[in-house]
Specification:
mainly alpha
Length: 68
């Protein structure tokens, strides 16, 4: 996106990431997961997605909300 000066690529990436995580979130009951190891894994995965989303939005000049 930077090399080609096409911010739309980053916007599409952020949108696709949000859609993918939304699908994931609806399939997996993260906070109510009974298996502690699986819950920890799902929470860590959620943190990684959040970090990617914050970075992608930041590159677009958009401040990510602190809480949804």
């Amino acid at each position: 996106a930077i090399a080609t000066q096409e911010p739309s690529f980053m916007a599409k990436y952020a949108f696709q990431l949000a859609q993918a995580f939304n699908n994931f979130y609806h399939k997996h009951h993260i906070l109510s997961e009974a298996d502690g190891q699986k819950r920890a894994f799902l929470l860590r995965l959620t943190e990684l997605v959040e970090a990617q989303m914050v970075q992608a939005l930041g590159l677009l000049g958009i401040a990510a909300p602190e809480k949804m």
